[in-house]
Amino acid sequence: MSIYVQTEDFDLSTELAKLRADKPAIGAVVSFVGVVRDMNEGMDVHAMELEHYPGMTEKALEDIVQQAHQRWTLQDCLVIHRVGPLQPLDQIVLVAVASAHRGEAFSACEFIMDYLKTQAPFWKKEQTPEGARWVDAREHDDKALSKWGVASSNSAGKDEDVS
Amino acid sequence: MVGLTVNIELRFFASIREKLGTSAEQASLPVEVKTVGDVRAWLMTRGGPWAEALAEGRALRMAYNQQMCGADTAIADGGELAFFPPVTGG
């Protein structure tokens, strides 16, 4: 398992080569790259800033990846999440999963992304023509996680009941 | 009485940090403050932006010792308690 929270960009080919190196049991690698769009909620976005909770972010991502390992037989996982100032076209996040067969890798990659969207402490602030605004959490992302049998009310207006 | 005082570190992130104008604080808690929810209520008694940003019914998430938690979570000396809005990474 490799988890990186960093300001630097990443190169997909390099990362996948490192993930696969010297692991001949791997038969499938699935990767997801999230990038900055120039439009959100009907407004132009010309820049954004990603804030996070150092320490907790890494722990939350490790926990998410461990849960993926418990659900599927995986050879290895990599998560890179960028923080700091970003612009449209920039890469934000990479999730790569390696397994013996494609089914596990496809599922685990989507699971990790769905989990990350609602449980990892990152916050986006967008610069728009009308000024800066914090991005609102989306109910759609909670629903995406619910298909894995995991409840999330991250986007709810009221306090989350996690007890 | 010495030994009863509970000191914790408070952390604030994103829109909550901006509303409060601070990102961290060392707090000495009154003895009756025992849970995460108690700390929130105690901070709200400061009024102004504190009462507003931490108001019940606001979309607010809490983490104790870097784990997402609910209001009932007990706090102890040396703990770290964070308040922040719903997360929006990825």
From TrEMBL, chain A:
It catalyses: 2 [molybdopterin-synthase sulfur-carrier protein]-C-terminal-Gly-aminoethanethioate + cyclic pyranopterin phosphate + H2O = molybdopterin + 2 [molybdopterin-synthase sulfur-carrier protein]-C-terminal Gly-Gly + 2 H(+). Pathway: Cofactor biosynthesis; molybdopterin biosynthesis. It is an enzyme of class 2 (transferase). The keyword Acyltransferase does not apply. GO terms for molecular function: molybdopterin synthase activity. Keywords: Molybdenum cofactor biosynthesis, Transferase. The keyword Glycosyltransferase does not apply. Its EC number is 2.8.1.12. It holds the Pfam family MoaE. One of its GO terms (biological process) is Mo-molybdopterin cofactor biosynthetic process. Belongs to the MoaE family. Heterotetramer of 2 MoaD subunits and 2 MoaE subunits. Also stable as homodimer. The enzyme changes between these two forms during catalysis. This is Molybdopterin synthase catalytic subunit. The lineage of its organism: Bacteria, Pseudomonadati, Pseudomonadota, Betaproteobacteria, Burkholderiales. The gene is moaE.
Automatic annotation (TrEMBL), chain B:
Pfam families: ThiS. Transmembrane segments: none annotated. InterPro entries: Beta-grasp_dom_sf (IPR012675), Mopterin_synth/thiamin_S_b (IPR016155), ThiS/MoaD-like (IPR003749). It comes from the Bacteria. This is Molybdopterin synthase sulfur carrier subunit. It comes from Undibacterium terreum. The gene is moaD.
